[in-house]
Amino acid sequence: MPTVQADRLKEIAAQLLMGAGATEEEAAIVARHSIGANLAGHDSHGIIQIPTYIDRVKRGHIVPGAEYEVVRESSTTTVVDGHWGYGYVVSERAMKTTMAKAQEHGVAAATVFRQSHVGRVADYPIMASSEGLIGMMTADSGRSAKGVVPFGGREARLGTNPICISMPSNLEGPMFIDMATSAVAAGKLGVAVARGTSVPEGWIIDKDGNPSTDPSDLRNGGAVLPLGGAEGHKGYGLAVMIEIFSGILTGLGFGHDPSGRHNDGCFMAAFKVDAFRDLADFKKEVTEFAQYLKETPTAKGFSEVFYPGELEHLKEKRLLQEGIAVEDSTWDKLKALADEYGLAEKLAL
Q1: 3-state secondary structure of 137
Q2: Which 8-state DSSP code applies to residue 150?
Q3: Is the pLDDT of residue 105 over 80?
Q4: Which terminus in the chain has less CB density within 10 A, N or C?
Q5: Does 142 score more than 90 pLDDT?
Q6: For residue range 20-40, what is the model confidence (pLDDT) as tens digits?
Q7: What are the structural domains, with CATH classification, of the chain?
Q8: For residue 302, what are the contacts with CB-CB under 8 A and spacing of at least 6?
Q9: Backbone angles phi, psi at 80, to 5 degrees
Q10: Is 178 helix (H, G, I), strand (E, B) or coil?
C-alpha cells in the first residue's frame, strides 16, 4: 500500500471532488473531514470514501451546491433541510449555529435531515468542546439499507447509529467518546473487504444467522451484531434511542426504503459550561480527572491507561509525521478518477 502525507491526500480528495462538481469550499470541507478520519485511525471514514461520494454525485444522490434551508427555528433549536448536500458541509454549518445559540442561551440543539454521509461523528462535538462547550451528536442512516440486527434477531433492522460526546479540558488532545452502537462500524468491514482481511468473531453473522469472520458476508445477506456481545441488549437499547433522536425526531422515519438514498439524520446539542459552573474550573477538573484515570495501575497485558480520545490524538500526531497508508484498491480508484477528470498529471497519480 502506498503511504501518502495528509496534506497531499487532502489535495487529491479536494481536486477529485471539484472534478465531480463540488465547489472549492465544499471540496475543502469534505477533504478536511475525510483525511482527518484517516489521521485519527478511522480509515473507514477516510480517503476510501471519496470514490463513493463521487459515485453518489453521479447518481444524483449527493447534490453539490445544495440549498441549506432552516425549516423550523427558535432561540435554542434549529431544524435543517440539507437538500441532499454534502453531509460534512451541512452538519458543520448546523453545529456552528447550535454553538452560537448555546453561547447565548446556555443550551441549544438541532436536527438535520436530507444530507449525505457526515463521516466521523466526533468532528462536530469536538468543534463545540474546542470552544468551551460540551458537544453531543447522534446519527443514523435514515431509511437507507440497514445492517444491524436487534438483540436476539437475525435480520437487520437498525443502522450502526453512532453517538459522540466531547468535553472541554486542558488536555493536549480532546476528551471524547465516539462509538457505533453496533459491534463494529460498517465502514470498518468495508476496509477489511478492501484489504482482504478477516474480522473478529462477534462482529457479524452470515445470512443464516451463524457467526462469521468473513466481512464479505455482510454484503451477502449477513448483518452486524449490536454492541455488547452477550450483553448486546445494552447496545441495542442505545441504538433504538439514537434511531428515535436521529430518525424519528428528524422526520426521516424508520425502517428501509429500497428506493431511498443514504441519508444521515442527525441530532446535535451544545451546552455552555458557564451556565452550570465556571468554565476554567471545569476544564481544570476534567484534566485532573483524566490524569487520575491514567494513574490507574495497569491490568495484565496493558502498558498504559488512556483517557477517552487520547489514542486518536496520539495516532494523529504520529501519522502527520509518517503519512497515511492507502490500500491499493482505493489508490487505483483515485487514479482512475484522476484520469477521468484530466487531473492525473496535476496530482502526479
Answers
A1: strand
A2: P
A3: yes
A4: N
A5: no
A6: 999 999 999 999 999 999 999
A7: 3-277+323-347 (3.30.1370.60)
A8: none
A9: -115, 130
A10: strand
Instruction: Name the band, by pLDDT with cuts 50, 70 and 90, for residue 195.
Output: confident
Residue tagged 442512516 (cell numbers) = 141
Which set of grid coordinates corresponds to residue 203?
Answer: 462482529
Please report which confidence band the pLDDT of residue 257 belongs to, taking 50, 70 and 90 as the band edges: confident
Residues 183 and 205 sit within 8 Å (Cβ to Cβ) = no
Number of residues written out for the chain = 349
Cα separation, 203 vs 147, whole angstroms: 12
The answer to whether residues 123 and 114 touch, using CB atoms and an 8 Å cutoff, is no
Q: What is the largest CA-CA distance in the chain?
A: 57
Instruction: Give yes or no for a contact between 83 and 114, defined as CB atoms under 8 angstroms apart.
Output: yes
Orientation of helix 87-105 relative to helix 24-39, angle to 10°:
80
DSSP state letter for 156: -
The count of other CB atoms within 10 Å of the CB of residue 193 is 17
**In the numeric block, which cell numbers belong to residue 155?**
435480520
Q: Is the pLDDT assigned to residue 10 strictly greater than 80? A: yes
pLDDT at 187 over 80: no
- 21 grid coordinates: 462538481
Q: What is the C-alpha to C-alpha distance for residues 140 and 130, in angstroms, rounded to an integer? A: 24
Rounded Cα distance, 144 and 158, in Å: 10
Q: Could you give the 3-state DSSP secondary structure of residue 303?
A: coil
What the block records as the C-alpha cell of 302 is: 496493558
- The predicted pLDDT at position 243 comes to 96
Spatial neighbors of 86 by CB under 8 A, at least 6 apart, are 22, 26, 29, 30, 53, 62, 64, 66, 115, 116
Q: What is the spatial distance between Cα 44 and Cα 223, in angstroms, rounded to a whole number?
A: 17
Tell me the pTM: 0.93
